[in-house]
Specification:
This protein has four helices and nine strands, in the order E-E-E-E-E-E-H-E-H-E-H-E-H. By secondary structure, the chain is of the alpha/beta class.
Length: 181
């Protein structure tokens, strides 16, 4: 489940960020179970077409774009404040459940920190309304084979809770900084 938080910012809603946040799968070893990932890119990782020459994303097909970029300064400050990995978060329509699938996804997106299912949709909606977006994922399991016994949902949600405590001041100060001029 994802939560989309809209922060009002100082003096009212001046294009506050939409923040999709929940648990997701982490790409080991960069994003171990219990860690946080803040997206520096929100990628529609499997929206496209398989071709004889390999996968083509929706942008390569000429049907729009496949990446949303959160404000770089906000993402960097959020990652620093929360102790998160700053890396792309991949939105997939079906989470990876095999080692082969994880390897294919990692080969296409070697810098990816996490996979989830909702971030790109929230980013599309935010962009349609002129809002920035900041995706945060708490890692509950490794990307790859489904091993429910290894999932640590409680640990991930605890990390997400702590991350949001640290994120509040970042959002407030980012809003102040953006509207000083």
């Amino acid at each position: 489940m994802s939560v989309c938080v809209i922060s009002p910012g100082p003096g009212g809603p001046h294009n506050p960020p939409a923040v999709p946040a929940a648990r997701g799968g982490g790409f080991p070893p960069a994003a171990p179970v219990g860690s946080l990932v803040v997206a520096d890119a929100i990628v529609a990782a499997d929206l496209g077409a398989e071709t004889p020459d390999g996968f083509l994303d929706v942008q390569e097909l000429g049907f729009g774009h496949s990446v949303h970029l959160p404000p770089a300064e906000l993402a960097a400050r959020a990652a620093e404040a929360t102790g998160a990995l700053l890396a792309p978060v991949l939105t997939v329509s079906t989470v990876t459940g095999t080692a082969e699938g994880a390897a294919r996804l990692a080969a296409r997106h070697p810098l990816a920190g996490a996979e989830a299912m909702e971030g790109f949709g929230v980013a599309e909606a935010a962009a349609a309304h002129g809002l920035p977006v900041l995706e945060i994922r708490a890692v509950s399991n490794a990307v790859g084979p489904r091993d429910r016994d290894a999932w640590r949902i409680g640990d991930a949600l605890a990390a997400l809770t702590a991350g949001f405590r640290a994120l509040g001041p970042v959002l407030v100060h980012w809003g102040e900084h953006r509207h000083e001029s």
